[in-house]
Amino acid sequence: MTEWRPDQLVFVDESAANERTGDRKYGWAPVGAVAEVSELLKHTEKWSILPMFTVDGYEAWELIHGSYNMERFNAFIENHVIPRMNSFPAARSVLIMDNCKIHRNEVSGYLIRLIVGSEAHM
User: What is the pTM of this model?
Assistant: First the structure.
């Protein structure tokens, strides 16, 4: 990533949580004893957030109940990310995201190439 300036970088990554997100999955106990925990059963709705952020902070975000799928992700890219992007080598011209399956599809590749041009690498 040293070939790009910090002001060129735009990051997109989704995250999710519910009431159980902070619950411990492991514990400790004296040698030979079983670690036990007693908790009330919680079943709450999942929240997901999809932010677009740069070195200047958050530029756009969307918070929803449930999970992101390919259609919701593509809509966020089209409506919130692409309008804020610029052609390379201007500021906000390099989009960084992980290789999650919903990110790797023909529609998002097409949308990104619309703003960046045919030089976009997916």
Answer: 0.69
CB 96 within 8 A of CB 10: yes
Q: What are the structural domains, with CATH classification, of the chain?
A: 1-18+45-122 (3.30.420.10)
In 82-114, which positions are buried (b, 16+ CB within 10 angstroms) versus exposed (e)?
beebeeeeebbbbbebeeeebbeeeebeebbee
User: Quick one: which of 45, 67, 53 has its CA closest to 6?
Assistant: 53
> From the centroid of its chain, how far is CA 29?
37
- Token digits for 100? 């999650």
Q: How far is CA 78 from CA 4, 20, 26, in A?
A: 23, 32, 41
Nearest-CA neighbor of 67 among 47, 92, 44? 47
Cβ neighbours around 79 below 10 Å, total:
12
CA–CA dist 50, 97 (Å, integer): 11
| pLDDT means over runs of 10, the chain (122 residues) | 89 82 68 77 79 95 90 89 88 83 64 56 44
